[in-house]
Amino acid sequence: MGLWDAFSEIVESVTPWSTVEAEAPAQEQECKNAPQCASAKHHFDHCVERVQQQEEDGGAKEDCVEEFFHLAHCATDCAAPKVWARLK
Amino acid sequence: MLARSCLRSTRTLNGLRNGANNVTKRAASTSSGAANEAVPTRLNVAAAASTTLAVGSMAWYYHLYGPVAFASTPAEEGLHPTKYPWVHEQWFKTYDHQALRRGFQVYQEVCASCHSLERIPYRSLVGSILTVDEAKELAEANEYPGEPNEQGDIEMRPGKLADYLPSPYKNEEAARFANNGALPPDLSLIVKARHGGCNYIFSLLTGYPEEPPAGTVVAPGMNFNPYFPGTGIAMARVLYDDLVEYEDGTTASTSQMAKDVVEFLNWAAEPEMDDRKKMGMKVLVVTASLWAMSVWVKRYKWAWLKSRKLAYDPPAESKVRH
């Protein structure tokens, strides 16, 4: 049996679907940095920078929800098929 | 008579007009008299009052409508969920019943502490999610009010397959009291009840960001979720990796649990889907073949008419005049 266990462990470690941790956030994070989301990410980062500056100067006048939405929409759109490919 | 009355009416109109003129004339002539001599203080008071009124109403209007209105913002609408390639939404696919079983486990271990599923009886779980014995065992773990005994008191009895899944709270008030005023909705029909259905619920469960975007004000006791309209949701993130241990050894990642539980909730909302698709296919196949048969029969019946040949056979030329 020991030989069989060792063999199945090798098979498990080689097959991609059993080793990869099926996780959407990681995939989305990857997508946020992907080229198709570059514009949304740029705007979001810019907004965060601006708002943090405002907070330092005493009180934010706006929030980055809209920019966040655009980025999240782009990232989930890009990640959806990849996540599904990994889920059971 | 009619003509006279008409004439008279025009006359009275004229009279009125003249009268009005006269009145104004008279008023103008009398105003030069001593009665309405300009009283400076009264005029000043009137001017001041009307100015105050005008300025005040303008200020009030500005107070009401002047500042930038934060209405119809994207935050208010909520982020629209991405469309995920759900297998069970395809035409020729059924629910993945392994996933339903896992999803039911997630519901029981995670969701059921706050959310009821009160329209689902144990019997409907039989055959699609649990075996009969498993469902009976599950039902017997809960108590339900039984028949009145000899003294008329209702005694509690162990659950049967015909009973419905127990709710975590007695009523809406109790649910709100336990959840800081927020009501966890019943999940029986939630997939049908929410815009975006499966995609929305999956996104909601997995979409809690690490921290809300800069500048967002999250009310105390609330959590930021981009997919929830208004972005402030009372439910905190509940699904974390390895929260449950699946009996079939599937990796219980957040997305996997969310996917399974959403598929289970879709089953809860429309348990008839598998049968409906099968019936739909039967209907399509039968009607298509009946239609093909009807076309064939029509052509068969009309064949003699369609294939006949009309020929004009002129009489032979003759010298005889008719």
Task: Tell me the number of strands of chain B.
Answer: 4
Strand content of chain B is under 5%
Order of strands in the sheet with most strands of chain B: 1-2
Q: Would you tell me the overall average pLDDT of chain A?
A: 82
What multimeric state do the chains show? heterodimer
* Number of contiguous helices of chain A: 5
Overall structural class of chain A, as computed from helix and strand content, comes to: mainly alpha
- Estimate nothing, just give the exact number of structural domains of chain A: 1
Separation, N- and C-terminal Cα atoms of chain A: 28 Å
Please report the distance between the alpha carbons of the first and last residues of chain B.
86 Å
Figure out the total of helices of chain B.
11
- The CATH level-2 architecture of chain A is identified as Orthogonal Bundle
The low-confidence runs of chain A, each spanning 5 or more residues with pLDDT under 50, are: 16-20
Helix content of chain B: 40-55%
Principal-axes geometry of chain B comes out as: flat
Helices and strands in order, then pairings?
The complex is a heterodimer of chains A (88) and B (322).
Chain A: H1 2-14, H2 16-19, H3 24-32, H4 38-56, H5 65-86
Helix pairs in contact in A: 3-5, 4-5
Chain B: H1 2-31, H2 40-65, H3 74-77, H4 97-109, H5 122-125, H6 132-140, E1 143-148, E2 154-158, H7 172-178, H8 190-193, H9 197-206, E3 223-224, E4 232-233, H10 254-269, H11 273-306
Antiparallel strand pairs in B: 1-2, 3-4
Helix pairs in contact in B: 4-10, 9-10
Structure explained in plain terms:
The complex is a heterodimer of chains A (88) and B (322). Chain A has one domain: Ubiquinol-cytochrome C reductase hinge domain (Helix Hairpins, Orthogonal Bundle), CATH 1.10.287. Chain A is mostly helical and 88 residues long. Mean pLDDT of chain A is 82; it is low at 16-20. Chain A contains 5 helices and no strands. In chain A, α3 packs across α5 (65-86) and α4 packs across α5. The longest helix of chain B is centred in the last third of the chain and has 34 residues, at 273-306. A two-stranded antiparallel sheet of chain B has the order 1-2. A two-stranded antiparallel ribbon of chain B has the order 3-4. Mean pLDDT of chain B is 89; it is low at 19-25. In chain B, α4 packs across α10 and α9 (197-206) runs antiparallel to α10. By secondary structure, chain B is mostly helical. Chain B contains 11 helices and 4 strands, in the order ααααααββαααββαα. In chain B, β1 and β2 (154-158) form a beta hairpin. Chain B has helices spanning 2-31, 40-65, 74-77, 97-109, 122-125, 132-140, 172-178, 190-193, 197-206, 254-269, 273-306, and strands at 143-148, 154-158, 223-224, 232-233. Chain A binds chain B through residues 21-25, 44, 47-48, 51-52, 54-55, 60, 62-69, 72-73, 76-77, 80-81, 83-84, 87-88, and chain B through 73-75, 79-85, 98-99, 203, 206-207, 209, 213-217, 226, 231, 241, 250-251, 253-256, 259. Chain A: Residues 25-88 form the Ubiquinol-cytochrome C reductase hinge domain. Chain A: Keywords: Electron transport, Membrane, Mitochondrion, Mitochondrion inner membrane, Respiratory chain, Transport. Chain A: It is a peripheral membrane protein. Chain A: Belongs to the UQCRH/QCR6 family. Chain A: This is Cytochrome b-c1 complex subunit 6, mitochondrial.
